[in-house]
Amino acid sequence: MIIKASWKLPIPLTDGSVHNVIYWADMEKVSNKAGCYCFCNKYGNSISIVYIGKAKNLKKRIEQQFLNNVRLMIGLKNFGNGTRILMYCEVETRMHEKLKILESQLIKSAAVNGHTLLNVHGTRKLVKHEIEFIKTNKAARTIFERKMKVFS
Question: Which are the contacts of 44, defined by CB distance < 8 A and separation ≥ 6?
Answer without folding.
Answer: 82
